[in-house]
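Reviewers asked in the last cycle whether our approach scales beyond single polypeptides. To address this, we selected a multi-component target totalling 846 residues and predicted its structure end to end. The input consisted of the following lines:
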Amino acid sequence: MLAYILRRLLGLIPLLIGITVISFVVIKLAPGKPVILQYSLNPKISLEEIKRLEKLEGLDKPLFVQYGNWISNMARFNFGYSLSDGRPVKEKIFERIPITLCINLLSLLFVLLIAIPLGVRSALKQGSLFDTTITVLLFLLFAAPGFWLTLLLMQLLCIQLGWLPISGITSLDFEYFTWWQKIIDVGRHLILPVLVSGLGSLAGLARYMRGSMIEALNQPYIYAARAKGLPENKVLYKHALRNAVLPIVTMLGLSIPGLLGGSVIFESMFAIPGLGRLFYEAAMMRDSNVIMAEIVLVSILTMLGNLIADICYGYVDPRIRYAQK
Amino acid sequence: MKTLLEINNLKVIFHLSGQDIVAVEDAHLSIAENETLVLAGESGSGKTVTALAITRLLPKNASIASGEVRFFGQDLLKLDMPELEKIRGNKIAYIFQEPASFLNPLYTIGNQIMEAIMLHQAKTRAQALVVAEELLNQVQIKDPRRVMLDYPHQLSGGMNQRAFLAMSLACKPKLMIADEPTTALDVTVEAAILELLMKLKQSLGFSLLFITHNLSIAKRIADRVCIMHRGKVVEEESREAIFSAPRHFHTKELLSAYEKIGKI
Amino acid sequence: MIGSIIIAALSLMAAFAPILARHDPAMIDQSNLLMPPSPVHPLGTDGLGRDLAARICYGGRISLSIGLIAVGIATLIGLILGSIAGFYGGFIDSLLMRFVDIMLCFPTFYLILAVAALARPSIFNIMVIIGLTSWMGTARLIRGEILSLKEREFIQAERAIGASNSRIIIRHLIPNAIGPVIVNATLSIGGAILVESGLSFLGLGVQPPTPSWGNILIESKSTLGVAWWITVFPGMAILITILGFNFIAEGLKKKIG
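The resulting structure, written as structure tokens, was:
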């Protein structure tokens, strides 16, 4: 097991290099110069001044050197300064992590709590009205654009019914609330974003769970378990479910990067100050330092997420944990 | 000798999309105490379906249309589930063709054997552990402690089959139903398993319903032979009668096929 | 899935429907701002008085073609890289698969956003960038298929009669392996349309006044409580189209087995 992990870790190094190279190349190649704050507001700026500012940022050196500088800086967790407001990129990113993480974790929890039982129940009642209805609904959910559903829900819940607030994470008079009121306020604001972020994955996961459970139920060892005299519920939960849930573990690992990737669209719609929105703003402002930093960060997390998923799967499935004798 | 199992007029239908297929029609057979009945026939003749039907282990799309299965006089088809579950694994046990597929890959051998023990006997985990190891000894597994901790994929086919056998014998069943248990094994392993099975049958005293398409096995171990063809029982005789004076044309076909390839 | 045929027909209709639209989608009609659905304007009008039905029809043309071409590009790239990797194996395979792994680590939506923001967002750019970020699935699929087909007898036979490598790949391996790739491609079209509408919704995709289902929905943000038709209809168009392609994919999956 340990050897397996070490091998995978080593294999990550070329991946890491590849990610950084490609990110760098893509951003540098994209047409349009990075706008530096100082001269974006001054249309009369002279050519020398521009050149001087570029030299300051190190943008005049050959690409190799720029890449090298960038990598060595990153290794020391120095992501440079935002080109749009001069603040350190690291600060801007880290202050947004908690909120994005929070929403995505809650969303993941929500998805798991609903998709797994739904999938299992559909599998058990295969072919029934319940199953068919749910399958149709999930199909629709899968095909519907998330931001559209958000708009519809916003229309219904926020405007027509007025149950939930439409944007932000706190209300205007937040500071005057008591502790308990503050919690409820944040909660109310978060319900909709958490819900809609999860809808897409809910559909996929539930369908996958259903398929996995059906397959597990048809395995020979299920018949053998019944032949032993096991009551049906034990057969289902101890034997079938345990096997069916295994591939879900991998999927969980794969959704780890999603935890920080943040959804640009949802965060913009709900005016939530998270990583996704930061990226959007940076993209609009052509703030290449922030853009590159976020892309690399999320890519690395994806890589780690995959590794964790593989390790978890390897641990949980004895066929991988113990090789054949 | 008392009659242990008696099947009368069994009819099993499979409901496939759009079609209903009769897999077993008017099946009948009986097994006495301590007797070995070989249920033989070609693939698709309904042997496995009949065997599964005995304890109602059929898949959801199959139904038992009519008939009765009397075990010690009690009709198993009429029992409600809790009662039936008490008999499964306890009084009637199974072994199957590919042991590795029929064992749960996520649990150790020990865990699965102990599950069978603790299900029907009031024993603690510690007690069950001891019993399990003893069972593995009985099936001639040399290092029971280690095998208990192994997972099915780590063992060979023969070892898995022995372990499965141990699991099935955990509660000292009165009837062992073996569905082609050696078909997937190498010839030498097959011989060893058969010998083990017959030895255990003698020492523990159970009846054996042995399903196979291989008549040479029947010749070796059967007291009586029952031939199935296309879902129907066509002949049910003692071993000598089947091999010396077969009556049904299909039995004769089977026998001649085996003789031709020199296997009998 | 018979539903697939029905929905497929609907999708085709969307492609040709623009010719059926009665109103000019760009025509601004000040007297008819934000009108709910009526016999004259069957789906209502938007904030500039433009007929929504016409805009949706023309937008459909654009969204559909972006989806189709983007997936076309992605499939082509995937086929080429995947078959080379699968066929030649060894070092080339490892190299290419590493490349696939790297590309898979990228948050594709972020990349697309970044490029769309940094370059000028044009329809062509969008097609290309979506294509360049979605070929990985196809590549892996075809590589897998080719790896297993490579050793089969009919391929050995071809080699024995001296067929060249490229001939074997193009005329024998790919046609046999293409099944899952087509299913995957069909499903991806839905995904591509989703990405494009997301981009347009954020203002980085198809630029107004050219209509695209995504950018029509931009307006719905500000007219939420007031004009429900601007929200409902474009979204439904996207939903039905993606559903249609998904159904076709499911049907194909069953046929290929």
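Chains C and B do not touch (no CB pair under 8 Å). We regard this as preliminary and will revisit it once experimental data from Aim 1 are available.
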